[in-house]
Design a protein that fits this description.
The chain contains two helices and twelve strands, in the order H-E-E-E-E-E-E-E-E-E-E-E-E-H. With 214 residues, the protein is mainly beta. Strands 1-2-3-4-5-6-7-8-9-10-11-12 form a twelve-stranded antiparallel β-sheet. A hairpin with a 2-residue loop joins strand 6 and strand 7. 7% of the residues are buried.
């Protein structure tokens, strides 16, 4: 009996020695995507940062970036805001040398990508760009004069080119132009109000021969 136990013990020792060892490897840290910074809102040399907690919840929700001019006066460059309290920037504001607002960018669905960009001149809205897709590229543009909407442009097929135009007057659509063959030119006009319909009908009517004077 003692002779049988010795070989079994030897086999057990050999199997333990030859069995693969379990190696514990360190878990890789999750990759955190860098925050999206809209074009034109990059960090400037020499800028100073001030942080504010306007909601008094112990977390920063407004970041102000500024520099000092030659006279030592502080000049505001831009602001960043956390609108929903998740600790991420959802709104970017850019200011001109005179301190007036020139551009605002919003991330409305909080996915880290710009959705709406507003452009200002002399504190008045002049253009709005809207990105509806996941690529963050604008597909619609609204234009304003003295605060009133004058024109809308759309890229309806996502090829990067405008193929629909809406012209507005007094808060109403005046006419719509459509590019059917993607050549950048209007192929069909659609009138929307009565005066525009009359004008369009006159433009489409065949030319009349001149009247002979008696």
């Amino acid at each position: 009996m003692r002779r049988l136990l010795l070989p079994l013990a030897a086999l057990a020792a050999i199997s333990c020695a030859t069995a693969p060892k379990h190696e514990t490897r360190p878990t890789a840290a999750p990759v955190v995507a860098a925050p999206v910074v809209p074009l034109g809102f990059e960090k400037q040399p020499g800028e100073a940062l001030n942080e504010y907690d306007l909601t008094h919840d112990g977390k920063t929700d407004v970041w102000k970036y500024s520099v000092k001019d030659a006279s030592g006066k502080e000049v505001l460059l831009r602001k960043e805001k956390d609108l929903n309290g998740d600790g991420k920037v959802d709104s970017w504001e850019k200011y001109g040398p005179d301190g007036t607002l020139v551009r605002v960018v919003f991330d409305l669905d909080f996915d880290g990508k710009p959705d709406v960009t507003l452009f200002y001149e002399k504190d008045q809205l002049v253009r709005k760009e809207m990105a509806f897709g996941f690529d963050g590229l604008p597909r619609a543009w609204n234009y304003y004069e003295k605060g009133k909407l004058t024109r809308k442009e759309r890229d309806t097929n996502g090829d990067g080119n405008v193929d629909s135009w809406e012209y507005w007057e007094n808060g109403e659509i005046d006419r719509i132009g459509v590019d059917l063959d993607s050549d950048g030119q209007v192929d069909r006009w659609e009138a929307r109000n009565k005066s525009a319909e009359t004008t369009a009908a006159a433009a489409d009517a065949p030319p009349q021969p001149p009247r002979t004077q008696k």
